[in-house]
Amino acid sequence: MKRRDFLKHSTLASSLFFVPNFVKAFENVTKNSLGHKKLVIIQLSGGNDGLNSIIPYTNDLYYKNRPQISIKQNNLIKATSELGFHKNLAPLKNLYDQGYLSIINNVGYPNPNRSHFRSTDIWHTASNSEEYLSSGWLGRFIEAYGKNSYSGIEIDDSLSLIMKGKSINGIATKNAKILYNNVRTPYFKKILQKQTNEHLSEHNLGYLYKTMIEANSSAKYIYDTSKTYQSKSNYPNNPFGKQLKTTAEFINSHLDTKVYYVSMGGFDTHAGQINRQKALLKTYSESLEIFVKDLQKNDTFKDTLILTFSEFGRRVKQNAAGGTDHGAANNVFIVGKNLNKKGFYNDAPNLSNLDKNGDLIHTVDFRSIYATILDKWLKVEDASILNKSYSKLHFI
Q1: pTM
Q2: Across the strands, what pairs with 344?
Q3: Which parts of the chain register pLDDT below 50?
Q4: Which residues contact 213 (CB under 8 A, 6 or more apart)?
Q5: N-terminal to C-terminal alpha carbon distance within the chain
Q6: Nearest partner of 260 among 250, 274, 270, judged by Cα
Q7: Angstrom distance (rounded) from CA 285 to CA 90
Q8: Which residues of 57-72 are buried (b: 16+ CB within 10 A; e: fewer)?
């Protein structure tokens, strides 16, 4: 096969996997030694407005800064004497009432960046705001403790930075059958049947041959294992609902995957925020509640922790277009069966002490949340993954 043709047709493999390890012989994917705990990360991409999700309904400054877009008291679900849920987060409130939700307020990082792309990179890599890393924190976890690509799966067609390690990546797929069929095409079969040793000394070709062999092994394992469970739950017929259904099928089929990443877009509400966010929160919370119930039916919820974040919050003051501009600190949702701190983990946002841009000031570093999950949930050494030691929280 011509070198040019090989490179041209290797897009699928190289977009899903990254295993340039030429010392080890090609071998079957090995099982890892981690326990049964699963972590599901959900990103509300675009910067969800936390103040209109969890509403400080007794705070006059909230209504003063948002005369048109604030959520009125008769249009929310009260949780405490200070805070209430957006009415379209009613399914999330149900999880709160059952003791399955911990809400961490004022989460962010020093010197916050208000670019979607840069702030997402910071959250994905667990870097400082002035630090640029090429690997994600979940990718480093997969690399250090998973030992194979399917230890981490992103439910999407392409792989995000959060799942990329230095020498091993997670896998991106929305459908195990399609992934499996893709690596069984005549082209893939022809490559896998060829003697490839002649190419291993060449860095690019050796890497691509290796990734294609890894793709074949992992795709077969994911497909063979995940087809043992097909969810009967009635998920919403939208992309996010389908992603969570696939995630539930992977978890309930006991796939040996430790971390999952799902992203839902549309939260950049610069204009017309009221109706846009209303629809988005409904999609998110309805799908999440069904996902939790699906896991409960199969006795896997007790071993699953779910974290929801946005790359930043919104400005406290509304803008002239009936929306909000990019902000800083935000709330984070932790969902699990046996939480140590149920309900609200910490104090409500302080609207009388904002930064110079009119944004909430963070009181919890998001990397402390990561460190807590790594240490207390996944039971691994957090400082080696995060490149630094961070204080631990007590939600689990």
Answers
A1: 0.89
A2: 103
A3: 1, 6-33, 195, 197, 200-201
A4: 26, 192, 196
A5: 54
A6: 250
A7: 7
A8: bebeebbebbeebbbe
